[in-house]
Amino acid sequence: MTELSIVVLNRLPNDPMSKVQSSLPPMENLELIYVTPIVTPIQTDRVNVVRVNSNTLRIEYPSAPGGIETDRMLGAVHASGAHILFMDTHRQLLPYEITNMHTPLKNGASIVLRSKFPRDPEMSDTVALASTALNLILDRPELGAASLTRFPHGINRDVFHTVPREELWNPPRFLAKCVLNRLRVETFYREEDSGPFWDESTLSHILADHLEALREITEQKGPRAGYTDMQRRRNAKVGFA
């Protein structure tokens, strides 16, 4: 089995595959999975998988509205590495960042997430607020705003024995299931020069995914997600003179 797969999700209007290939450091037992949308003249759901060379796969999928996480799931399905790192094409993945994610995975972590401010999340970002709330409800406040919605992050292949990789189409719910199953989730620090910019459609999609994650928690932990109501007397009647 390949030791490390790097899944690159292209979400830019152009196709920078050659630039991505040249930016990766030379490493033994490394696999590159490059996933990019294509525009087809006719409506189709066909996915093209092209073997570029011995350690590089190019996956082309039909571009369609409302399916922004299809690429992540496709990358995970075709990756053969024991450890899988996910990044997008908005910013280059630096060699030290590969090490910062790969090392915890080799040491037994199930998931490694990027965290800019572990104890002081980016409160100006709506997605960060949703991720922070989700982590609080999962009783993991130390994760701050860290989530599978933000890149880069890493997943140990063994996780898919507990939560199927096909469920990566909804990253917040996938993470919630991992935490509820007591899988080991760690963070690594990454400075970022600018935050993500979400258009209205993408933002709505991501927030809906977080609501699905909350529903998963309540289904497993009860309607109050494990929180007490402090023995509130719901049958008490208050009268006013």
Task: List the SSEs and their pairings.
Elements: E1 4-9, H1 17-23, E2 30-38, E3 48-53, E4 56-62, H2 70-78, E5 83-88, H3 95-106, E6 111-115, H4 126-137, E7 153-156, H5 171-180, E8 185-189, H6 200-221
Parallel strand pairs: 1-2, 1-5, 2-4, 6-8
Antiparallel strand pairs: 3-4, 5-7, 6-7
Helix pairs in contact: 4-6, 5-6
Largest sheet: 8 strands, mixed
Q: Tell me the CATH topology.
A: Spore Coat Polysaccharide Biosynthesis Protein SpsA, Chain A
Alpha carbon gyration radius: 20 Å
Put simply, the count of helices is 6
Unreliable parts: none
Mean pLDDT: 85
- CATH homologous superfamily placement: Spore Coat Polysaccharide Biosynthesis Protein SpsA, Chain A
Strand order of the largest sheet: 3-4-2-1-5-7-6-8
| General form | globular
Percent of residues in β-strands: 15-25%
Polypeptide structure, described:
This protein is an alpha/beta fold and 241 residues long. The chain has one domain: Spore Coat Polysaccharide Biosynthesis Protein SpsA, Chain A. The chain has 6 helices and 8 strands, in the order βαβββαβαβαβαβα. The protein has an 8-stranded mixed β-sheet with strand order 3-4-2-1-5-7-6-8, sandwiched between helices. Helix 5 (171-180) runs parallel beside helix 6 (200-221). The longest helix is centred in the last third of the chain and has 22 residues, at 200-221. It is globular, with a radius of gyration of 20 Å.
